From TrEMBL:
Pfam families: TetR_N. GO terms for molecular function: DNA binding. Residues 16-76 form the HTH tetR-type domain. Signal peptide: none annotated. InterPro entries: Homeodomain-like_sf (IPR009057), HTH_TetR (IPR001647), Tet_transcr_reg_TetR-rel_C_sf (IPR036271). The keyword Lipoprotein does not apply. Residues 39-58 bind DNA. Keywords: DNA-binding, Transcription, Transcription regulation. It comes from Flagellimonas maritima. This is HTH tetR-type domain-containing protein.
Length: 204
């Protein structure tokens, strides 16, 4: 499992235990109930802290959301980077994201993609959260590109981008639709479609 994320950008490290409690509490509420439906007062009540305590760690609800998104992203990407090398080289590693998603789906707390759920609630002026989500998705896409390079022989830059982009879009569709339908068939269908993206390639 990933090391505990460090949120020094958002709050003082000397009070990190309180800060992480706020993030943990807000994370559950944002992910299950939604960003807009979760108020600061609810976070304060669930944490059992004073309003002044929360605002001594975070300037705004938006800052809490940014820390929440970063924590979720770091945990997801770190765990996935551990998961992939445990699979056989070649096809299994290229399709690992769908097996990883299946495990996520089977977890009792699955509510789809935390980033896309938040994105759907943003107003035009919430540019910081939008930029953070975009950056995190680019990091995920970049790692899918690394998987392609490591498992497709003599892959060109264009081929790498095509395969990693295809896997990315199939994953994003699968995580959204599996949450919508409360069923894992979108994950299995995406996994079955994925090999067509690299069927003519020589795999490691």
């Amino acid at each position: 499992m990933a090391d505990r994320p460090v949120f020094s950008y958002f709050y003082s490290m000397k009070n990190s235990a309180i800060g992480e409690k706020i993030i943990k509490t807000a994370s559950k509420l944002f992910y299950s109930n939604g960003y807009n439906a979760t108020g600061v007062n609810e976070i304060i009540a669930k944490c059992g802290i004073a309003k002044a305590t929360l605002y001594s760690h975070f300037n705004s609800k938006e800052d809490i959301c940014l820390a929440y998104l970063q924590q979720r992203h770091d945990a997801f990407l770190t765990s996935f980077k551990i998961y992939v090398p445990e699979r056989k080289n070649g096809k299994e590693q290229l399709l690992a994201i769908f097996d990883f998603l299946t495990d996520m789906y089977r977890d009792g707390d699955f509510n789809g993609c935390w980033a896309l759920k938040t994105l759907g609630e943003l107003s035009p002026n919430q540019e910081r959260i939008f930029a953070a989500i975009q950056k995190q998705k680019k990091e995920f896409l970049s790692y899918l590109g690394e998987i392609v390079v490591n498992n497709v022989v003599n892959v060109s830059k264009a081929e790498k981008e095509k395969i990693s982009g295809g896997l990315y879009l199939l994953y994003e569709s699968a995580i959204t639709e599996s949450h919508l339908f409360k069923n894992d068939w979108p994950i299995f269908l995406s996994k079955n479609i994925a090999p067509s993206i690299f069927e003519r390639m020589e795999l490691v």
